[in-house]
């Protein structure tokens, strides 16, 4: 009887430890998932900003509004 009780206690202890490890894993997984999602959103926003700035620069160059060259003498 004592042996059976000891095994049950040991199994319970292992079960609780495994449950705690699983909870920690799920917590880390969710944290990393949202961190990755935020990083993707930030990268997408930066890409949109870059494309907008590049388009504005190209429009300036096409319209002939070149930046003045300080090396040219009049």
Nutshell version of this structure?
This protein is mainly α and 74 residues long.
What does this structure look like?
By secondary structure, this protein is mainly α. It contains one helix and no strands. It has one helix at residues 2-63. The longest helix has 62 residues, at 2-63.
N-to-C CA distance: 106 Å
Largest sheet: none
- Structural class, judged by helices and strands? mainly alpha
The chain-level mean pLDDT equals 86
Please give the radius of gyration in angstroms: 31 Å
Q: Strand share of the residues?
A: under 5%
Order of helices and strands: H
Unreliably modeled segments? none
* Oligomeric state of the chains present here: single chain
The helicity comes to over 70%
- E-strand count: 0
Number of helices: 1
Categorize the overall geometry. Answer: rod-shaped
Give the secondary structure arrangement, pairings included:
Elements: H1 2-63
Keywords:
rod-shaped; 0% strand; 1 helix; 74 residues; mainly alpha
């Amino acid at each position: 009887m004592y042996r059976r009780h000891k095994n049950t206690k040991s199994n319970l202890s292992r079960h609780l430890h495994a449950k705690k490890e699983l909870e920690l894993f799920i917590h880390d997984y969710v944290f990393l998932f949202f961190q990755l999602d935020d990083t993707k959103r930030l990268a997408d926003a930066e890409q949109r900003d870059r494309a907008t700035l590049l388009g504005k620069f190209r429009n300036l160059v096409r319209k002939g509004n070149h930046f003045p060259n300080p090396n040219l003498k009049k």
